[in-house]
Each structure stands twice: as structure tokens, then as C-alpha cells.
Amino acid sequence: MKPYFSFQWHITDECDQRCKHCYIFAENTGKCPDRMTRPQMEAVLKNCRDFCETFGRQPYFYLTGGDPILHPEFWTLLDMFKAEAIPFTIMGNPFHLTDEVCQRLHECGCLRYQLSIDGIEETHDWFRKPGSYKTTLEKVAMLNKAGIRSIIMTTVSGKNIDEVPAIIDAVVAAGAKVYAFARYCPTSEEKENSISPQRYRKLLEDCDKIFRNYEAAGYDTYFNRKDHLWTLYDYEMGRFQIPKDAEPDMIYGGCNCGNGHLTILSTGDVYACRRVQNSRVGNVFDKRLADLWTNEFEAYRDYDKFQKCSKCELKAWCRGCPAVASSTSDGDFYAADPQCWKKI
After folding, report:
1. What are the residue ranges spanned by the domains of the chain?
2. CA 160 to CA 141: how far, in whole Å?
3. Distance (Å, rounded) from C-alpha 13 to C-alpha 300?
4. Which of the two ends of the chain, N or C, has the fewest CB atoms closer than 10 A to its terminal CB?
5. Are 183 and 193 in contact (CB under 8 A)?
6. What is the CB neighbour count within 10 angstroms for residue 37?
7. Biggest alpha carbon distance in the chain?
8. pLDDT digits over 100-133, tens only?
9. How many Cα atoms sit within 13 Å of 13 on the Cβ side?
10. Residue 280's beta-bridge partner residues?
11. If phi over 0 gives left and psi between -120 and 50 gives alpha, with beta otherwise, what is residue 124?
């Protein structure tokens, strides 16, 4: 079977929330939400098919927004996926999920539905909106019942880092099938995320113990060690070893920006990574994605440009998070990850 290629596709900016760390509205709360028309969505799907045919891949979509379910042609698009047996994940909100909606999502090919918990109840509802904490956790069982793998994601910042262990307990108690966290990328003039490298390492250490305790107790939740700094942590703990047959010029893992992923916004703009604010490479409506991939995306594959990672023996497996590095520097994709504690 051909390997998958991941397209993160934002079909609309419309949303029931105005999260304080939202990339869309963080700098402009008066922004008029953009959304694709049906012909535009058909054009995007055609362009993605062409990309996969060119490179011998199969499409996998991470459908998001905003909240994609608010798009008036949401189900039309899902019927297109169903007709071609294209698998997808929804990254959205809990507010419009019902048993009937979840069953229909499953029938259309939805494999996973990602929700967010960004703190214990008071903190989460401050970030997002009152009542969303309880609503999110309540919908986990509904997704599981429909055969959709429930995912809970946390955006870690200085505001909520001390609450992550309590979040994990709440997520496991709710029966979530997957839990992961990623770091907040500051927007606009905000360049400080107030987490020191050693404090972040301590978070990984604490979470590692919690994860292992739950795993040993036989809980169903899979803990996705999403942040690439887990590789550094596991390396220090002796759990990850550099393969003896590793080729020096190969990239084996780490950030997939420019490697196995791209983002399409509701305006048609194509980004190397949605979290890298200045990573626009073109527009899906006037350029073949396959051509962008072999040209403009090359700017994100010059691994010797990484200021710190290029000197590290883990370069081919880690590289931290360039999105966090970019957002806390002057937009330099190759800047040092501010939470990396390794001395080079």
C-alpha cells in the first residue's frame, strides 16, 4: 500500500469560540471569517489528488478550521471523501456532536476526532469559553461509541503547564483513546512563552512517570509523545539510541515540515506549517501543490541551517519544534528551540 501524505485542511474560519491562543483571531478579533466555496473545495481535492499521484502517495486529511462542521458544505465534502474511501481526522469543537452526527462521521470515513483541553476547568474555560471543559470531556464517550478514536490535545503554555498532570488524569478518566500535548507558539509581538528549558524537561519527566503508571495499570489511553524533545529526553534516559547503520545525510524523524505534511488555509494559502506564521509558500488555487513541493518547500529542508540542531547528534531524529523557535525569535525557522535544554 502506498504511504500516506498528510494535508491539514482548514475549510472555514467560522468557530463557536474565540480562544485566546487562536492563530486566526489572536491578532484581529474583528476579522471576518473566511471559508471555501464548494467549487473551491473540489479544486483543492483535485490538486491534492494530483499531488499524491505525482509522488506515489495516498491522501490523508486533517480537516479543521475554525470548526469544520460549521461549514455549510461540510457533509458534501465528507460525501466526496466517502466516495473515494479517503480517510480523515476532524480537528474541531465538541458543541455540535450528537450520537447521530458521530455515527454519520464514522460512516463517511472519520477515523479520529481531536478535541482540546487546555487546563483544569477554570483555566480551560478562560482560554476557550465557559462550559466547554465539561462539554469536551462529555463528548469523548460519544465518539468512542461511534467507533471514532477520541483524541485530546493540550496546548502547553506558562499559563497551564502546572496543570498538565491534572489534565492527564481528567482525560484518562473520560476514556480518551489518545492524549498529546504541544507547546504554544506566541503570536504578534509576544515573544516570550515563559517556560524555561529545565521547567519543560521537568514536565516531560513528570508526564513520563504518569504515562508509564497508567500504561502499567492497563488503561486504554495511548500517550502520544508528540513533541520532538521527547526524543532528547528518551536519549538521555537511554531509551533511544542512534542506530549504528544510520546514514549521515538522512533525516529519519523529527519535525515533518517540508517532509510529509502541508497546510491549506480557508483562503487557499498553502503553508509549510500552520504554526509557523511566516511559512506561506503559495496558493492552492493558482499553483500545483506538486510544483510547490519541489520548489518553494525546499526552503524548509536545509537542515544544516539549524543554528543549534545542525551541531547535535540527534539532528536526524529530533530538531525540536521549529514553529516554537520561529515564533520566539524574529521568524527564523532555523533558530534554536527555546525549550531545548541540551548543551551543544
Report:
1. 4-304
2. 25
3. 26
4. N
5. yes
6. 10
7. 55
8. 999 999 999 999 999 999 999 999 999 889 999 9
9. 18
10. 271
11. alpha
Helices (H), the chain: 38-55, 74-83, 99-108, 121-127, 132-145, 164-174, 197-216, 229-236, 289-294, 322-328
Q: How far apart are CA 15 and CA 112, in angstroms?
A: 20
In which residue are the cell numbers 489511553 written? 221
How far apart are the C-alpha atoms of 324 and 330, rounded to whole Å? 11
Amino acid type, 276? V
CATH number for the domain running over 4-304: 3.20.20.70
Assigned C-alpha cell, 216: 502499567
Confidence of residue 24 (pLDDT cuts 50, 70, 90): low
What separation in angstroms does the CA of 72 have from each of 91, 115, 182, 332?
Answer: 17, 21, 30, 38
Compute the distance between CA of residue 206 and CA of residue 229 in angstroms, rounded to an integer: 14
Cell of 136: 469536551
Q: What is the pTM of this model?
A: 0.94
Is the pLDDT score of 31 beyond 80? no
CB 211 within 8 A of CB 237: no
Task: Return the DSSP state at 153.
Answer: E
Give me the DSSP letters along 60-111: EEEEESS-GGGSTTHHHHHHHHHHTT--EEEE--STT--HHHHHHHHHHTEE
Q: What is the pLDDT of residues 232-278, one digit of tens each?
A: 999 999 999 999 999 988 999 999 898 889 999 999 999 999 889 88
Q: Convert the pLDDT of each residue in 149-205 to its tens digit.
A: 999 999 999 999 999 999 999 999 999 999 999 999 887 554 456 799 999 999 999
**Residue whose entry in the numeric block shows the C-alpha cell 469559553:** 129
Tell me the C-alpha distance between 34 and 1, whole Å.
Answer: 36
State phi, psi for 80 to the nearest 5 degrees.
Answer: -65, -45
The residue behind cell 482540546 is 116
According to DSSP, the β-strands at 261-264 and 178-183 are unpaired
**How far from 235 is each of 169, 244, 317, CA to CA, in Å?**
26, 15, 10
